[in-house]
Design a protein that fits this description.
With about 300 residues, the chain is an alpha+beta fold. About 50% of the residues lie in helices and about 15% in strands.
């Protein structure tokens, strides 16, 4: 996606300080235009280029980051974020979003794409026309990087991230998650199962998340509830269970999105949220999910 901008952003900023009825709005627009035109920039680089104070640009970027209009990269620079790209996508088709929507139609349930952002997991895209993924999740939602979140990414990551992830697990489940990291490359995905009572609990927690979204000062509690949503998503089925002919509960399936060199880029998630799934349906979910993950890995730029 490319957004066309005028080349005199700094010049317009100088004029806006005296002519505009809303200088704060112009500052936000100028920051977005600069990132669209020039690509990733640090806060200091943006401030210097626009002739603004670093505190002002920092405040603008913080607000844009909270709404997922910009994304902070590992090198502390900023780039356009998923929410803004979705808006622009109405005019410029996004091949990744097109693939996500096609997957949602194929599996007839919610779909999400997640990426690592610092020490957290961030929802980059959410397709919920065919079902929630899970209820209460939206673009920009963040989760702490603790098991079981991002298991398929960690399974293909380096030893340092694996150690950090496993160290954050409850001691009683650490061996379970170690086995999961071994199983994921063999299966190509992680398949989580939760019973009917667990599915009802997920619905209730989703209602709590939706309620807290409108409550000022509830951000920390909402973050905890979101973490709990994934914590009760069930237990990962091992390869032997998945190969059996009997039905299994399936809440979510996740597959890694890998670069051509095998580097993990993102995690692709679908949420059937079914208490009983026969083997042909499981095979269908796995085939569709892993094929879409491979397609996105070929078309998605590195972050």
């Amino acid at each position: 996606m490319r957004i066309t901008v005028l080349p005199t952003v700094r010049g317009r900023m100088a004029a806006d300080k005296t002519e505009s009825v809303s200088p704060p709005t112009q500052r936000v627009v100028s920051v977005v235009e600069m990132l669209a035109a020039d690509g990733p920039r640090t806060s200091a680089q943006i401030a210097d280029a626009l002739g603004l104070s670093r505190s002002t640009v920092g405040a603008v970027l913080q607000g844009l980051h909270q709404r997922a209009w910009v994304r902070r990269r590992a090198d502390l620079s900023y780039e356009l974020g998923p929410a803004l790209r979705r808006i622009a996508g109405a005019a410029t088709p996004d091949p990744v979003e097109a693939e996500l929507r096609a997957l949602a139609r194929t599996v007839d349930c919610g779909v999400a794409l997640l990426r690592l952002d610092g020490g957290e997991l961030r929802f980059d895209a959410v397709i919920d026309e065919h079902g929630p993924i899970p209820p209460g999740i939206a673009v920009g939602t963040r989760l702490p990087l603790i098991p079981p979140a991002a298991a398929t990414l960690v399974a293909h990551a380096g030893p340092e991230l694996r150690r950090h992830w496993l160290a954050a697990a409850e001691p009683a489940r650490r061996a379970e998650y170690e086995r999961l990291l071994t199983d994921i490359p063999a299966v190509g995905a992680a398949v989580w199962g939760v019973d009917s009572a667990g599915l009802r609990a997920l619905d209730v927690l989703a209602d709590v998340v939706a309620h807290l979204a409108d409550e000022p000062g509830s951000r920390a509690l909402r973050h905890r509830v979101l973490s709990l949503l994934f914590d009760i998503s069930g237990t990962a089925h091992d390869p032997r269970a998945l190969a059996a002919d009997n039905p299994l509960p399936v809440s979510y399936l996740a597959a890694p999105v890998l670069a051509p060199d095998g580097t993990p880029r993102a995690e692709l998630l679908i949420g059937p949220l079914r208490a009983s799934v026969p083997k042909p349906d499981r095979d269908h979910y796995l085939a569709a999910l892993t094929e879409s993950a491979r397609t996105i890995g070929r078309t998605s730029p590195p972050r």
